[in-house]
Amino acid sequence: MASCIITGGAGFIGSHLTEALLDKGHNVLVIDNLSTGRLQNIQSFQSNPKFNFLEADINDQEKIIPHLSSVDYLFHLAALADIVPSIVNPLAYYRSNVNGTISILELIRKNCPNIKKIVYTASSSCYGIPDKYPTPETAEIRTEYPYALTKHLGEQIAIHWAKVYKLPINSLRLFNVYGPRSRTSGTYGAVFGVFLAQKLANKPYTVVGNGKQTRDFTYVADVASAFISAAESTVTGETFNVGSGNTYSINRLVDLLGGEITYIPKRPGEPDCTFADTTKIQKMLEWKPKVSFEEGVKRMLQNIDYWKEAPVWTPESINEATKDWFAYLGTSPVLG
User: Cα-Cα-Cα-Cα dihedral of 329, 265, 177, 257, to 10°?
Assistant: First the structure.
C-alpha cells in the first residue's frame, strides 16, 4: 500500500487514475482547484477511507504543505487545457502549466525526501504537425499554440529537476485520450464531448474538414495504467509516448456513433494525423493498451447521459468560439 497524491484528480484522466489506484489498495489524496475538474467525477470515492480531497490551487504552497507527509508517488495532472483559451489568455496558461509545475516540484523536493516517483503529464501537442508517423519521442518539437508550449515547458522543467535535483521523474506524452467523464465545460474542445452532446440533442456532428483526418484515440483506463507503470518502474528521467498503437479517422468515429454530419472549416495548426510510436514505453515499461477503439466508443455511449448538460455546438457557435484561433494562426473560416 502506497500514499499517492494526484494533482488535478477531479478531472477526466485524474479521476480515472484515482479509481485505479484505489482499486489497487493505495491511499489517494486528490488536490484540485475545481476550475475544470468536477466533484461529480470523484463523488463515488468519498466513502472510501483511503480517499481524501483537498480543494487547492497547485500554486498555493501553504495550503498543500501540511498534506505532504509520507508521500510515495506524485502524479501531476493539474493544468489548463484547450487551445483557444490559451491563445486568448496565455499568461493564465503560463501561471498554471509552468509556474504550477515548478511550485509542486519544489514542494516535493523540499518536503518529500523519500518520494519514490513523480509522473508528469505532458501532451503530444508538442509535436505540432510532425514529419514522421508513427511519431517517436525523438521527433522535432513544434509547439503551435500557447497550450502546447506551456505543457512542453512543464515537461522540460520536470526532466530538468530530475537531472539537477535527482528527483525520480518520468513524463508521459498523451495522445487523444477519450472515455467516460471527459470534460463537458463550455469550452469548445475535444471531439468526443462535442459529438456526444450533439447526439443527445439529435443534431448533426460538426466534422472539421472532410473528416478523413485521423487521431490516435487512447482509452482513459489504458492511460491510467500507463501512469501506474511509469510510477512503479525503476526507470526514471524518461519521456514516453502514450497511445493506442493505431489511428482512426473522424469519419470512422461518426460511423460508430451513428448520425448525420455537417462539415466545418479545417483549422490552421492542426495535424491531419496523430499517431504515437509506442515502442519505447512497450519496451521499457512493458505497457500496452488493452481497450479497442470500438469497445471504447461502446463504453462512451453507455455513459452518454454524462453529457446531458454539455453545450450543444453548432457551426455558428463553433465559428464564434474559434475566431481567435483563425485570427492568430491562420485565415478566417468561411462557412458554406
Answer: 170
Max Cα distance, the chain (Å): 60
Domain of residue 14: give its range.
3-178+217-242
Could you tell me if 173 and 232 lie in one domain?
yes
The answer to whether 249 and 209 are in contact (CB under 8 A) is no
Q: Could you read off the pLDDT of 167-206 as tens digits, one per residue?
A: 999 999 999 999 999 876 655 567 888 999 999 999 999 9
- Report strand pairing: 51-55 vs 73-76: unpaired
Distance CA 313, CA 320 (A): 11
Cell numbers 503529464: residue: 121
C-alpha cell at 102: 515548478
Q: Are residues 159 and 199 in the same domain?
A: no
- Alpha carbons 216 and 6: distance in angstroms, whole number: 25
d(CA 303, CA 308): 10
pTM for the predicted model, two decimal places: 0.94
Active site residues: 147
Task: Give the CA count within 13 Å in the CB-facing half-sphere of 270.
Answer: 21
Q: Apex CA 289: angle with CA 127 and CA 122, to 5°?
A: 30
Query: Which grid coordinates belong to 120?
Result: 508528469
User: Quick count: other Cβ atoms within 10 Å of Cβ 268?
Assistant: 14
**How far, in Å, CA of 132 to CA of 275, rounded?**
9
The answer to whether residues 86 and 95 touch, using CB atoms and an 8 Å cutoff, is no
